[in-house]
Write a structure and sequence with these properties.
single chain, 156 residues, alpha+beta, 2 domains, 4-stranded mixed β-sheet, two-stranded antiparallel sheet, 4 helices, 26% strand
């Protein structure tokens, strides 16, 4: 029984296009395609590496054009104005810190790591201002005590 010749096709994953064949029920990526184009040298190289694969370059070029158009539409899609303004960071973040419960209530979450760092720095600074002064160090050496509780009775 002769083995059927594989056909090459285009797949896209995580923002990249790949020249792919199906092998034993799974996709095998042969080459990563950059700028949605395959030049003549790459085509020759693929034919030498995979002599048992049928490359229909016209069909592959059409698939690349479709992927390029889909990516272009995705990148140029209209964005929600609320999301766009927050991503630029033009809106200030207001927050209230309750020292008794050590809780922060804010009107939003920072979009960048720098914004999160600034918020945490502000919280820590407020916490240090409200905290009582550290206790004085003990002059005498303290003995460690172990208290065991069993059945409601404690033993020193």
């Amino acid at each position: 029984m002769e083995r059927k010749q594989s056909n090459a096709f285009i797949t896209a994953r995580k923002g990249f296009c790949y020249l792919t064949i199906k092998s034993f029920g799974r996709n095998h990526e042969m080459m990563r395609i950059r700028n949605y184009k395959i030049d003549a040298d790459e085509k020759r190289h693929m034919r030498r590496l995979y002599p048992d694969v049928a490359f229909d370059w016209k069909k592959i070029t059409e698939q690349l054009a479709d992927k390029r158009e889909a990516c272009r539409r995705y990148r140029s899609r209209r964005r929600n104005p609320d999301t766009a303004s927050r991503s630029r960071g033009s809106e200030p973040i207001y927050g209230v810190y309750v020292p008794a419960t050590r809780t922060v209530y804010a009107n939003g979450v920072p979009a960048t790591a720098a914004g999160v760092g600034a918020l945490l720095d502000a919280i820590l600074q407020m916490d240090r201002q409200d905290a009582p002064p550290p206790p004085e160090p003990c002059r005498s050496r303290a003995r460690p005590r172990l208290t065991l509780v069993k059945g409601g009775h404690s033993k020193p």
